[in-house]
Amino acid sequence: MALFITMGMVFQTLYFLIDLYFISGLGQSALAGVSSAGTATFLVMAMGQLIGVGALSLISRSAGAKDWVHGNRVFNQALGLSLALAIGMMVFGLSVIDLAMSHVGADEATASAGRQYLYAYLPALAAQFPTAALGAALRGAGVVQAPTLIQILSLAINVLLAPILIAGWGTGYPMGVAGAGLASSIAAWI
Known about the structure:
The protein is mainly alpha-helical. 86% of the residues lie in helices and 0% in strands. The protein is built from 7 helices and no strands. It has helices at residues 2-23, 28-37, 39-64, 68-104, 108-140, 145-167, 177-189. Helix 1 packs parallel to helix 6 (145-167), helix 1 (2-23) packs antiparallel against helix 7 (177-189) and helix 3 (39-64) packs antiparallel against helix 4.
């Protein structure tokens, strides 16, 4: 079980690394802006663990006791809390992106790239909360391979979308750093 959980965390980190790989061709300011904005990824991953760890332990205990009513109640509470946190993340994120990037970015070009990325990436950050709840529920019920396979599929979608949206491969419409955030957001919600 630990192997699949570890793989899940690695795949979450790979979203950001894939973005950085394709962003690197856009210049130093773009790379620095996305890197600076990436701190939000790790903060949200840590916050998502609040839901995931609690739901996992309570649901696995209920599954072990074959108390499906309690397990279902815990799942509903975890999912409700995760959706509230996702909405809260969107509202909070939209209200602090400009201020945060103006303080974190080394110069205006870096801060601007970070802002563009975060505005497009914010839905992916919000998606991490319900994803944590759903993954924890499945793992707590003993289903460990499916959440990892879903993350692998989502990562593959991100890998396919990143060059299309960042560099404009096949479309002729490069979106730059905003394309990196959008690719991750689309893949996360799929």
